[in-house]
Amino acid sequence: MHEAIILANWPSCLNSLAWSHDCILALAAGETVELLIPVLSADSDDVDTGLQGTQHWINVHIRTNQFTSTEVPPIDPLPLRASSVGEEISTSDTSLIEWSPPGLAKHARCALAVLTTNLTLSLWVSDSDPKVTRSWKRVLILNHELEMYFQELYAQEEFRLELDCETRRRLRRRIRSFAWSPQLRPPPPSQYSVQEARFPINGSFIAVSNDNNDVVILRIDSPYSFFSPPSAKWSARAVAHFSLEPKLDMHQGPRLFLLAETLSEQRFITNLAWSPWTIDPDGVPTAILAYTTNCSVHLRRVRIPPFSADVSLDQTDVFSDSSAGTRNVHLLRWMPKARDDVFYLVAFSQAGAFCFEVPCLDPSKTTVSTHDLDGRWDTVSGCAFNGLFETEPEVQFLSQLTAPVEATSELKLPVPPATESRTPPFQQSIRDSEKLFSAENELAGHTHTKAWAMCSSPMGDLVASGVSFHPGDMVEYTIAATSRTHIGIQPFHDTAGAFRLPASGGMCPVEDLSAETLIYCTKTWLEELPEESRAESAVRSTILEQFWRALGLSNDHDDDPVVGYPEARADGLDLEERTSLAQALRRAVYYNDRSILKQRYGRLLTLFFDPKGTTQSDDAPAIQKLVTEVLKLPRSSYNDSEASRKIRTVYSSMLPWLSDAETDGMDDGAVETSTDKHVEECEICDDSIGFESFAWARCGQGHEFVRCSLTFLAIQAPGISKLCGICGKRYLNEEFVVRTDKLAGVAEARQSGDSSQQDVVMPDADGGQQEGILPSTEANVTAGEGSSKQGGSTGQDRAPAVDYGRSPITLARILFAACDVCIYCGGKFVG
After folding, report:
1. What pLDDT digit, counting tens, does each position of 49-78 carry?
2. 203, 293, 381, 652: which is deepest, by most CB within 10 A?
3. What is the pLDDT of residue 805?
4. For 435-491, what is each residue's pLDDT tens digit?
5. What ranges in 178-311 are assigned the alpha helix state H?
């Protein structure tokens, strides 16, 4: 295989590739981040991809090195002991990138964290269509929160000179490394199916290290996260930290003149890695934060209770090891999933490769196995974990200068005493590209290869590597316009033409397995088949069988029992109850019915081969399942509102159109009103709109509108809808529905002219509160102690923590939270 993508630039750092759960491949390339978004159709010849030589990827450029004076204020140089050329005069090139788990950005997508050489960490997200460059925005700079956090934490700190205060402040706000926390869910069994999917039980966290030997854990809130407080905007809040000693002595007597002395000075933590989550014997979610100092690898335990912003860190490391033996560990990575209750951590340095076997329940019993990497001296620039392993986990890696010829490019985990030398497909692909470059430039084989990065696909079935080629026997004269990076995408091992996906999502939690990932993996295999055989029924059967395998479904898997719904109390539902409610509805709509699963993924495959190959009748099973399950929700489980009443009424009006709909278990009111005519007013002429079609709505005067494919309300204005990125179904935007919704009691009071009734403002999903729509008294901003913890003790008081508390939740919010991807094909939304 499989594919070679050529980008017109060079990477600006090692480990410069990152592949998101949305199936977007990102490359750190100097002043920009290059995004590669797969084209998800079999016929892509007419797509403008922005790339030469491939029609399978769309290239999007994000300029990440431009900051306003508010984002990064102008600064004066610091004394030599604390100066940083990067912070003061760098061009702010990209030095590290990593995708967040899904769900933080709009439409349940991933956010991209970008660390630049001015030591600034920022978050980038798309606010509409990821394929459009202008949709990508910088929404948050995390350095600001670090600065405020330490200013409050050390408010009474005394300094001899004002310059010392400024120096320490700058050291604390500089960010050197970071690591995202994996999605926090109850730990699943090693092999489980999408029908046993687990909803996250907490928000998004990121660990960062600064120039002052501190590691800080930040909670990230966004307007789109299910776990963010009402009316949240993009924000970061430090919730825990720990420090290493000694700190930089700003008044040290003689300067360090010996190189060895300078290098031995512990200035900052160079690598961070966050393990998957497990549950400790007390029932508290626990993970391991790995970090590296000058010559050691350390493990420290992190605990975060479910549905809480409180984070506690052990006061001391549970394990440390100095066998890495050098100041610089090139790469530190956890395997994304535990195996047999063991986490695997790999570290690469000039001393070799190290595998740490970390027991989930007792990390202090960690064992280490090593490999000398054949005595190579160059840096390991990337690694990838194989999601298709059968018995032992496996990691592949490449070195910066010897990638085409290195004898060892893959290792079993734990590392066995003797390793078998073989050439994996990615290495052979690099050799082939190297020969082609030599022939095109008449170099007679004198070619030098630089390997910049490696990463695996979300499931771990494919590996991407980024390399550049250069003349090997002469001085290279070049300009930026002639820079080229070759990104090769290969399977981990030769599959002999067979199509095989990892079981139960492979390295990806099966809950996060996106339709985009499945389609891309299918497309890479089909490209290897003769064109005339791609549409054969046997090929489609093979693909659907592998979809089933990736979703963890076996032929003897029974449908899950219906999950009970929690009932709302007068003071509303707490966050745990809301999560249970949304999870129950999601399972019922998406996963519990095997026939609906088959229909959804069959439709997905049909859309891949022929985007116009489906009809409205194909939608009926999904619509019927959605309507019946929503009408089974007891009204006591949510607060009544105008939008909730409209949705229930239109769903009830649809029952006569759904001949096979089962009314058992539905609320009595739903069945009784099923014959009532649904009345929705036309915003043009105020005439009523009856129900005539699942796809469109029309008033008595003939004004016609598209119906939302989820609420089935008419979309009567521009700019208030989104659409599925795969099948094109149109939906109302959650922000619009929530922003204009009102609790039923308030609406009735307004209609009756009772001006003494207090308005109740619904929490706005897009980050603001609309005047006159839901109460500030319901926002539940609770004051109290700050949640910053170190070693289980509460830190100094900070600003009041924003918490969900008990606030009203309506049917509309439940519906949009449960159905955050297309109910017909599983595609993610754009717009």
Report:
1. 667 667 789 999 999 999 999 999 888 777
2. 381
3. 47
4. 999 999 999 999 999 999 999 999 999 999 999 999 998 888 888 888 999 999 999
5. 259-264
Ordered by start, the domain boundaries in the chain are 13-73+85-118+120-149, 377-494, 558-739+814-830
Give the model's pLDDT for residue 2.
Answer: 61
Q: Pick the range with the lowest mean pLDDT from 50-59, 273-282, 412-421, 582-591.
A: 50-59
Provide, for the chain, the percentages of residues in helix, strand and coil under a 3-state DSSP scheme, each rounded to the nearest 5.
25, 25, 50
Nearest by Cα to 450 from 83, 790, 10: 10
Q: CA-based Rg of the chain, rounded to a whole angstrom?
A: 28
The pLDDT-based confidence of 419 (bands split at 50, 70, 90) is confident
Q: In the numeric block, which tokens belong to residue 287?
A: 């993970």
Number of DSSP helices (H) and strands (E) in the chain, helices first: 15, 39
Residues with Cβ within 8 Å of 46's Cβ and at least 6 positions away in sequence, in order, are: none
Strand order in the sheet with 32-38: 17-19, 25-29, 32-38, 57-63
pLDDT of residue 724: 96
> Which stretches does DSSP call E strand in 472-609?
485-491
HSE of 306, CA atoms in CB hemisphere, 13 A:
19
Whole-angstrom Cα distance, residue 778 to residue 808?
7
Under a CB-based contact definition with an 8 Å cutoff, are residues 232 and 767 in contact? Answer: yes
Tell me which residue of 801, 734, 768 sits closest to 232, measured CA to CA. 768
Q: What are 486's strand-pairing partners? A: 6, 467
Structural contact between residues 473 and 415, judged by C-beta atoms closer than 8 angstroms = no
Confidence of residue 788 (pLDDT cuts 50, 70, 90): very low
Helix, strand, or coil here: 730? Answer: strand
Interatomic CA distance for residues 229 and 804, integer angstroms: 5
What amino acid is encoded at 210 in this protein?
Answer: N
- Under 8 Å CB-to-CB from 596, ≥6 apart: which residues? 590, 621, 622, 625
Contacts (Cβ under 8 Å, ≥6 apart) of 368: 321, 323, 354, 355, 356, 357
801-to-2, 144, 240 alpha-carbon distances in Å = 50, 18, 13
The answer to whether 194 touches 114, Cβ cutoff 8 Å, is: no
- Strand order in 380-385's β-sheet? 380-385, 394-399, 410-412
pLDDT digits (tens, 9 = 90+) for 602-660: 999 999 888 877 788 888 999 999 999 999 888 877 888 899 899 999 998 888 888 76
pLDDT greater at residue 787 or residue 136: 136
Show the DSSP H helices in 83-239 as ranges: 85-89, 143-153, 162-173
pTM above 0.85, yes or no: yes
What residues contact 644, with CB distance under 8 A and at least 6 apart? Answer: 638, 741, 744, 810, 811, 812
Contact 257, 240 (CB under 8 A): no
Backbone torsions φ then ψ of 526, nearest 5 degrees: -65, -30
With vertex at residue 662, the alpha carbon angle to CA 658 and CA 666, rounded to the nearest 5 degrees, is 110
* Cβ atoms of residues 29 and 94 within 8 Å: yes
Characterize the bridge pairing of strands 120-126 and 394-399: unpaired
Both tokens assigned to 104: 């933080």
Closest CA to 667 of 689, 692, 640, 690: 640
Furthest C-alpha separation in the chain: 89
Neighbours of 781 (CB within 10 A): 13
The per-residue DSSP string of 348-386 comes to: EETTEEEEEEEESS-GGG-EEEEE-GGG--SPEEEEEE-
| Amino acid at position 774, single letter | L
